[in-house]
Amino acid sequence: MKQELIGGLVLCLIGLRLFFVSPVTLWTLTEKWKTQDGERPTKEYTILIRVLGAVFQIANEHLIFGIICFGAAAGFTTSANVYRERARDRLENYRKA
């Protein structure tokens, strides 16, 4: 459970960085030194960075939502099993008496 939560937080940070940081700033930090002219990134690069940011955010929400739903389902199942065991014990005690 902790690994999934940590993974979700990492995806959230990556997605936020890709989605909200200016693609030009990201390009300047990571790709500018690889170009000959080094003026600005292409339109395709900026669109790709925005799309990747959105994909990471969607993956993060899916992961976090899955953890929350699984935790709720596991808690409900455990509660239901405890209730059944208590009812079974009460019935056995009633039959013995």
List keywords for this structure.
single chain; 97 residues; mainly alpha; 84% helix; rod-shaped
Structure write-up:
This protein has three helices and no strands. It is an all-alpha fold. Helix 1 (2-20) packs antiparallel against helix 3. The longest helix is centred in the C-terminal third of the chain and has 54 residues, at 43-96. The two termini are 44 Å apart.
Describe how the helices and strands are arranged.
Elements: H1 2-20, H2 23-30, H3 43-96
Helix pairs in contact: 1-3
Q: Tell me how many strands there are.
A: 0
Q: How much strand?
A: under 5%
User: So what's the overall shape?
Assistant: rod-shaped
Q: Supply the helix-strand structural class.
A: mainly alpha
Quick summary:
This protein has 97 residues and is mostly helical. The protein has three helices and no strands. The radius of gyration is 25 Å and the shape is rod-shaped.
